[in-house]
């Protein structure tokens, strides 16, 4: 086969153009953040410090405003958000507090994120709701069956991706012994036992900020940031 001078020049031009193109940049890892509030209250603004810290560590952050008073719908919302965030082949990670921690962990039990960190997740939501009949904030959820409530219970399902459970040794809402038992029965779950109660006493405390930042640091390491 004889190649003409014009064909040879065209081939060389194609090669030069290909060499001049920059390598495709790796997609920026995304971090989904989910707030506390027992699926009855709270709002994304409580995650503002976590959002800022995640951005400082190199994540593109998505602060979820998930539906309240409907745990199954909140779970579907988080799942859809994770799928949407993964478009463009972005690796997706999750961080959450309390009820948000439950959603984060459940995403890592449904292969929707690369890894998740949850601070003070309640592992058995139906049990928690049924055992607090006097808590008026939970009244909007009492019409759901146990099966429906447990769509957000991370302790009921095996993990598909790594989960860190940040558990306060004095937590009365999500007891530390249950967190330790979860760690022992699921090889993809690691419980970090930390001082203090639920969420270290709240998002305004130094204890909370230290542990939140450690959790996001771990996610950043998983993401190669």
Question: Overview of this structure, please?
Answer:
- The protein has 225 residues and is α/β, with parallel strands linked by helices.
- It has one domain: Alpha/Beta hydrolase fold, catalytic domain (Rossmann fold), CATH 3.40.50.
- Helices cover 39% and strands 15% of the residues.
- It contains 8 helices and 6 strands.
- Strands 2-1-3-4-5-6 form a 6-stranded parallel β-sheet, sandwiched between helices.
- The longest helix has 17 residues.
- It is globular.
- About 8% of the residues have low confidence.
List the helices and strands and how they pair.
Elements: H1 5-20, E1 30-34, H2 48-56, E2 60-64, H3 71-85, E3 92-97, H4 99-108, E4 115-119, H5 125-130, H6 146-149, E5 163-168, H7 176-185, E6 189-194, H8 206-222
Helix pairs in contact: 2-8, 3-4
Gist of the model:
By secondary structure, this protein is α/β, with parallel strands linked by helices. It has eight helices and six strands, in the order H-E-H-E-H-E-H-E-H-H-E-H-E-H. The radius of gyration is 22 Å and the shape is globular.
Number of helical regions: 8
Spatial order of the strands forming the largest sheet: 2-1-3-4-5-6
Count of discrete domains: 1
CATH superfamily: Alpha/Beta hydrolase fold, catalytic domain
Anisotropy-based shape: globular
Number of strands: 6
The stretches of 5 or more residues where confidence is low (pLDDT under 50) are 7-24
- The helicity comes to 25-40%
Percent in strands: 5-15%
Query: How would you sum up the major sheet?
Result: 6 strands, parallel
Rg is: 22 Å
């Amino acid at each position: 086969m004889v190649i003409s001078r014009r064909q040879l020049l065209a081939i060389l031009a194609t090669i030069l153009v290909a060499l001049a193109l920059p390598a495709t940049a790796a997609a920026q890892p995304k971090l989904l953040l989910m707030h506390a509030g027992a699926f009855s209250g709270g709002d994304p603004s409580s995650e503002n410090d976590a959002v800022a810290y995640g951005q400082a560590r190199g994540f593109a952050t998505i602060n979820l405003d998930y539906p309240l008073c409907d745990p199954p719908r909140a779970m579907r919302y988080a799942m859809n958000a994770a799928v949407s965030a993964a478009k463009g082949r972005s690796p997706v990670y999750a961080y959450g507090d309390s009820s948000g921690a439950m959603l984060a962990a459940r995403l890592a039990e449904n292969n929707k994120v690369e890894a998740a960190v949850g601070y003070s997740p309640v592992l058995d939501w139906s049990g928690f709701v049924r055992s607090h009949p006097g808590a008026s904030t939970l009244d909007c959820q009492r019409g759901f069956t146990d099966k429906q409530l447990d769509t957000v219970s991370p302790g009921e399902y095996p993990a598909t991706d790594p989960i860190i459970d940040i558990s306060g040794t004095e937590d009365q809402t999500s007891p530390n012994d249950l967190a330790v038992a979860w760690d022992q029965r699921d090889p993809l779950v690691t419980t970090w036992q930390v001082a203090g109660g639920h969420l270290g006493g709240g998002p305004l405390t130094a204890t909370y900020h230290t542990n939140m930042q450690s959790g996001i640091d771990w996610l950043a390491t998983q993401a190669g940031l």
